Amino acid sequence: MILTGKSAVVTGSTSGIGLAIAHALAAEGARVMINGFGEEETIATALAELTRASGAEALHDPADMARPDEIAAMIQRAHHAWGGPDILVNNAGIQFVSPIADFPAEKWDAILAINLSSAFHAMRAAVPHMRARGWGRIVSTASAHSLVASPNKSAYVAAKHGLVGLTKTVALETAAEAITVNCVSPGYVWTPLVEQQIPATMAARGLTREQVIDDVLLAAQPTKQFVTSEQVAALVLFLCGDAASAVTGANLSVDGGWTAA
């Protein structure tokens, strides 16, 4: 239990990759605060499972990642409950697919707010607590789209590229303080976020559902397989451990070979 005594906040974690990350951290003893929207019963079940895994308290905070005041309050709530937080995982994200000429300005603003600015606000609130404790781990879920682009995803690609720049900057600012700051960049993971992209991509490109999966999504990944949430979570867990104390300012790909070419 390498994270016993540590506390973690994982944004966008009531399902998908975020929930898998929360489970991985709890399995190593961390107290975990999950964040996001969802049915009350589903969230209660997730909290009970996290508590069983860690043997420690788990909490949920419904902070809207588009609202800086709610993000700051979430970090402060974790601090009051447990101290820290020792670990911050910026995982919240949304997507919208459209050619630039038809891309709604409000969708651009929402994607930049949730996929990029929320990480800034959470880091800004968490870093002082990590400095006070002399230890911290910040990991942000970027994307293969932090390294390469795809058509019709201008806001998402811009946000993920920006997230890498933010990560590198904060890593340099905290490098001498036993705080590491890194990104993980998954390829296509079968999550609700990816599944929701399929109809818009079908419409934008005139393809069937099967063609979108085979010829658009998995075409990018030489393995021809979706990455799993558990594979992403395992990499995040490694970055949170002492074995990764020399890894900071990095953007680590877990993308089935997508960005190897």
From TrEMBL:
Protein name: 3-hydroxybutyrate dehydrogenase
UniProt xrefs under InterPro entries: 3-OHbutyrate_DH, NAD(P)-bd_dom_sf, Sc_DH/Rdtase_CS, SDR, SDR_fam
Signal peptide location: none
Molecular function terms, GO-annotated: 3-hydroxybutyrate dehydrogenase activity
Enzyme class: oxidoreductase
Family the UniProt entry places it in: Belongs to the short-chain dehydrogenases/reductases (SDR) family.
E.C. no: 1.1.1.30
Keywords: Oxidoreductase
Species this protein is from: Sphingomonas citri
The keyword Acyltransferase belongs to this UniProt entry's keyword annotation: no
Coiled coil location: none
NCBIfam families: PHB_DH (TIGR01963), PRK12429.1 (NF009093)
